[in-house]
Amino acid sequence: MAGNTDTGVRTWGELLDPRSMATHQQLGLVAILALFVLPLVLPAIWAFRVAGALFFATFVMSWDFVSGYTGEISFGHGLFFGVGGYAAGMANLHLDVDPWLAVFVGVAAAGAAGLLIGFPSLRLQGPYFSLVTLVTPIILISVFRFFPDLTGGELGLVGVGTVDKFGDLLFLPSPGFSPIGAAYLALGVFLFALVVFVAVTRSDAGMVLTGIREDETAVAATGKNPAKFKLFAFVLSGLIGGLAGATYGFSAVGSFTVSELLALVISIEVIVAAILGGMGTITGAAFGGAFFYILRTVMRNIEFIGELYFLVFAVVTLLFLFFLPQGIVPAAVNRLFAGGSPGEPVTDGGSTDAMAVLRDWMDRLGGEKR
Length: 370
Prior knowledge:
Subcellular location: Cell membrane
InterPro entries: ABC_transp_permease, LivM-like
Order of helices and strands: HHHHHHHHHHHHHHHH
Helix content: 55-70%
Oligomer: single chain
Strand content: under 5%
Distance between the termini: 22 Å
Membrane topology: Multi-pass membrane protein
Structural class: mainly alpha
Number of strands: 0
Protein name: Branched-chain amino acid ABC transporter permease
Number of helices: 16
Pfam families: BPD_transp_2
Shape: globular
């Protein structure tokens, strides 16, 4: 191919050239560019909804990274959002830490929670592990009730005092009060999580995680330690989930309440959204999270549906799951864009052109030759 390096690996310029991308990749790039424009042209109420959808999509990606790739189904992933959010909120409320700095407190706390939850995966598998993840947030909520002066109990931090919101950041209007600022903050968190998760799942580590899901014994037979990789997945998922939870709480669209960060229904919605978009794909989970949030919001505001909105929403979601069990994104890619060229991003682990470019640069810098 003209323009290739001597090693046959494409350069960054060639890799990022939209003209060399597959059709579905070009559509994804257009969607991301549209997200930069939407907050400026949409009414304020829809800018809020875009922000909420992007935060929720980040939650869903963090769940998919663990459960979609390792096969260990977590029924209590809201724990990470809650721990990250509450730790950041309490740091601001009780210690007067600036919200921008308190986010790092929330991220560290959620990472520690990921380490704590990940350890059982060294010994437990399948339904036993899922039961642990289900019980853990329930225990945490019970603990909150014992310390209402610190946590606000079931009311959340609003029952204790007023938590500060994000202030202005450089050229960004205050994400704590401005719908445009909140939308761009959510977009930044969303893109950061997307890049991290896609990079890891398309690397050799992603192949191991996928292998654990398919046959953990076979992975162990190759000399790899499945427990170590699962622990890594939980910690990284906790860090990103905590980041999303903390930034969501300080933003204009969120708050530090049990119903918004720790309720069991959030963990269930995250699972449904990931399956809806395409479990074990990251990009599918990102789409599914945003689609799920917007669909639910639109139905809630249709007048003639009224109080029945949740029933109609559940039926519509079930229809999607029934007719597209593999998820919307994988189904669309397979049916509309079948026959893509080799080397496209894969849906569940494996090497891509990006990894080949990274390896080529590592080799140029004196790294290990493969």
